[in-house]
Model the fold of this input.
Amino acid sequence: MDFSRRVADNKRSRPAAGSATIPRAKLFGKPASLSGWPRVRGKGDDLVARTGERLRGSGGASRARPRSRSTLADIAAEAGVSLPTVSKVVNGRADVAPATRARVERLLDERNYRHPGLRPGRGSGLIDLIFNGLDSPWAVEILRGVEEWCSANGMGAAVSSVRHGSARPASWTSALASHDTSGVLLVTSELTAGQLRELRDADIPLVVIDPVNLPEPDLPSVGCTNWAGGMAATDHLIGRGHHRIGAIGGPPGYLCSRARIDGYRSALERAGLDYDPALVRHGDFEHEGGFVRGGELLDLADPPTAIFAGSDQHALGVYEAARQRGLRIPQDLSVVGFDDLPVDRWLSPPLTTVRQPLAEMGRAAADMLGTLIEGLPLPSKRVELSTELIVRESTAPARPASPSP
Done:
């Protein structure tokens, strides 16, 4: 049975025992009402009055001349409203004047308009937000941005966590295909070719946030300027007189981790400083990784005077590693993080970090997904938001080297 048939069968019956399911952790927002959605006629309906004109041939017989399929732009022009207004009506949004809604709905019905971006049953008003893990304040910031967009657009979000995303290639994608979702936001998870193919076969709109691996050119994605952020963090430390600077990246296979370390290396080379592989470690973007890898750097015979941590959680781990060794931040060790989580300004000392616009990334991705759900083209398939260095109190000028005995 091909995949589209299987999806249709799943909608008519309960899933078989043992089939993959995705637990929905939370619902945010209110699903949009679809009361204004035009009825889709069956093949047997008489569409002459709706879509064609009666033409008289020889002998007085009548036949229908079909009209070309109307687009949202055609309907917007005839109704005298903007294209976004028509999209709001099609998707059941409440923020349209009653008279305008009635005029647009009448034209939609007259043109027998059917939304090209959705198959029947996909207008649930609910999107799936899938993380690689939910135990991180980083994920909470992404979620906050998505929830803000959902609240403003009459949509809901179902939150799920898929660990080891490529271990069972089709498990979570099969579950998505079997339940009613309008679209998917996938956050910092590896997407295999098989998983992407299954989602596309099921006609499920997809946007990836901070992709782990390099996305296909036609796959919509949102990220930030990781390379520029790594360079800005390292430039700041060099500007404070540090020449021996350690770095703790995330998993080496992660696209964002590689970009941040590349930015670190580029800053060193631009300043005429040697890149020393012994000063680079890779963790897991979590506290433990920063603590362990930071400790390894501080235990070197010639330890660094500053550390660029590839995430704020790594930086917190470095704080603890330094404390256990009797080192003071920033007097003995300068530290720069990456993320700008809300907790950063409450640390002692407050953390200098590279701000990654996490909530804005969530909102931008949700907005792109909303455009795809509406069946409209995206202005760009790849969106990168700017990073910004936030200077607080965790960095200080490098201490003069002690004279040799």
